[in-house]
Design brief:
By secondary structure, the protein is of the alpha/beta class. The protein has 9 helices and 5 strands, in the order H-H-E-H-E-H-H-H-E-H-E-E-H-H. It is globular, with a radius of gyration of 16 Å. The N and C termini lie far apart (about 45 Å).
Amino acid sequence: MIAGFDNFSEKFASVLSSDSWKKAESDFLSSSRILAVGNGGNLAVCDHGAIDIARLTNKSASAPGSGILASSLINDVSHDEWVKNWLSISLRGLPASSVSETMLIGVSSSGYSKNICMALDHALQLGCKACLISAQQPKIDGTYNTVILDVDEYHTSEVLTLSLFYQLIDSAGFSCPTISSSVARTQIDDYSN
């Protein structure tokens, strides 16, 4: 068995029973807009999670999955500041009531992703909800909610985090489709609502 997957179910259950996860779920439920960001593989997980949140719930969701966007913002400011700037762009023009219904989910495996932590702090300053999902105890302190996965492998952290995105979808009362129901479906979903 691949290292880190031998007790996956127990790790998942442990996260779901934590107070920090319960706060993350509560913040998710009260938000109409979800923004998710990470670095490397975690950005791919966030992009995947955001797409499915947007497809399967009544929430707007996005992640900065474009390499063009990220490299442009990194070139404009710095690696440490680009996520903070992406957040500001994503909130541009929104009334305060919409900003307060926005949740930024940041993901870090190492717990030392300065760009993610700075963006989470910025989100709170702007009036958003903010949550860090970290494989281990973060090396940077912040006032945002932090969900600690207590795992040591990048791959375990990434798979567990994606599972948590689906848990958020489920806890909000929405269903993740089965493969057989998706294959059998002949109608195209209407995303206008």
